[in-house]
Amino acid sequence: MPGLQPAAPAPLALGGDGALASVALLLAVTALELQVFDFLGYQWAPILATFAHIIVVILGLFGTIQCRPCYIVVVSWLCSSPSAGRRSSKDVQEILLQAEQHFPSV
Predict the structure, then answer these.
(1) pLDDT: is 74 or 87 the higher one?
(2) Among the four 64, 70, 75, 102, which has the fewest Cβ within 10 Å?
């Protein structure tokens, strides 16, 4: 029809989620490029290490989302504490009990 014109494309407006998704997509594309160049250069160890790292990150994210917050706080505190290796199981149980009081189960 002679009177109809195609609509002009809407300007690209990225909100918080859109910007995060675009950054994640950019990182995924660059990681894929890195994998291709590593494969072409016969660097098998970086390929396997990156693949294992991606799998561990995915499993860790899903595990953290499903876990209760008190355990996340306790594990992160134990990992960052320099004397974590010298703690007894009784100390860890007391820490868990105190954390559960601050973060009740959802």
Answers:
(1) 74
(2) 102
Number of H helices and E strands in the chain, helices first, is 4, 0
Q: What is the pLDDT of residue 84?
A: 60
Q: What crossing angle do the helices spanning 16-40 and 44-66 adopt, rounded to 10°?
A: 150
Q: Which amino acid is at 102?
A: H
Q: How far apart are CA 65 and CA 54, in angstroms?
A: 17
The helix/strand/coil state of 1 is coil
Using alpha carbons, select from 70, 77, 79, 76 the residue that is nearest to residue 98: 70
Copy the structure tokens of residue 85: 């290796």
d(CA 95, CA 45): 39
Half-sphere exposure of 10 (CA within 13 A, CB side): 3
Q: Model's pTM, two decimal places?
A: 0.29
- Distance CA(105)–CA(97), nearest Å, equals 12
